[in-house]
Design a protein that fits this description.
Blueprint: E1 5-6, E2 9-12, H1 16-23, E3 38-43, E4 46-51, E5 54-60, E6 71-75, E7 80-90, E8 93-101, H2 107-130
Antiparallel strand pairs: 1-8, 2-8, 3-4, 4-5, 5-6, 6-7, 7-8
Amino acid sequence: MSDEARTPSVWIDRSYDEVYDFLAVPGNFPQWATGLGEVTGREGDVWRVKTPEGAAKVRFSERNDYGVVDHDILLDDGTEIPVAMRAIGNGTGTEVLLTARRRGRPAEVLAADVEWVERDLATLKMFLESEA
């Protein structure tokens, strides 16, 4: 059985290297990703966060040559939510994509998640373009 997914994206007027260098640092996520909430600590490669839905842990992919910024959200109840995220060079800028999955929840919840991702990606765009 497949899991419905939507992948919002944003084009950022900054080079791929600049965007990926920023995204590859987990400590930068709180500056734009409100869904991950506030960082409350770190245990090795796992970040503890306080999200709008409660405490969680986040494990990020290692820096790589492919623009992958995947991360797994680990909820206190044992649920693990994989999040696929990519930075892709696009001309003089960079396209950033993040896939939201339905995960058996109502369609309205996926729609709300997509809206949240779109807001966060817009914040990322504003932040990185204002740093230029």
